[in-house]
Amino acid sequence: MAKILMVDDDQEFLEASKAVLVAENYEVILAQNVAEAENLIKKEKPDMIFLDVMMESPDDGIVFAHKLKKENMKIPVVMLSAIGKVTGYSHKRCDEVMPCNDFLEKPVNPKSLVNKVKKILG
Predict the structure, then answer these.
(1) Strand, helix or coil at 70?
(2) CA 115 to CA 112: how far, in whole Å?
(3) Phi and psi for 105 in degrees, rounded to 5?
(4) 72: left (phi > 0), else alpha (psi -120 to 50), else beta?
(5) Per-residue pLDDT at 12 exceeds 90
(6) Cβ contacts of residue 7 below 8 Å, gap of 6+?
(7) Which of 2, 32, 36, 62 places its Cα 20 to 30 Å from the Cα of 43?
(8) Helix, strand or coil, per DSSP, at residue 113
């Protein structure tokens, strides 16, 4: 069973996402900030990470994604963001600025969440 780490400061989003993924037979662990995520990555060794762009700071997710890349972390990362709703700017691709494997715009519908896991993990 694949283990997925969800990192987001929105507890309701975390719980809803967990329910959707558990129903699809994935193991899901939750973190509300980067510090919790770092500890869980070391302890739990997830197969995939969903990482919110904006948490305590507007760029927490981006900074953490860069740190994971710099440390040669091989865990696939899907960035999550509602930045398009807030700013009108939509960043739907991964590149040097946003080092990730894929991107999901929030709000995320349950089918898109499950499809993204299947796409990344096979």
Answers:
(1) helix
(2) 5
(3) -85, 135
(4) left
(5) yes
(6) 30, 31, 32, 33, 34, 36, 37, 49, 50, 51, 52, 55, 61, 64
(7) 62
(8) helix
Contacts for 89 with CB less than 8 Å, ≥ 6 apart? 83
Better-predicted residue by pLDDT, 2 or 84: 2
- 66: tokens are 């860069």
Contact 50, 29 (CB under 8 A): no
Domains of the chain from N-terminus onward: 3-121 (3.40.50.2300)
Other C-beta atoms lying within 10 Å of the C-beta of residue 112: 13
> What would the pLDDT profile of 48-66 be if each residue is shown by its tens digit?
999 998 888 888 888 999 8
* Residue with tokens 């037979």, as numbered in its chain: 25
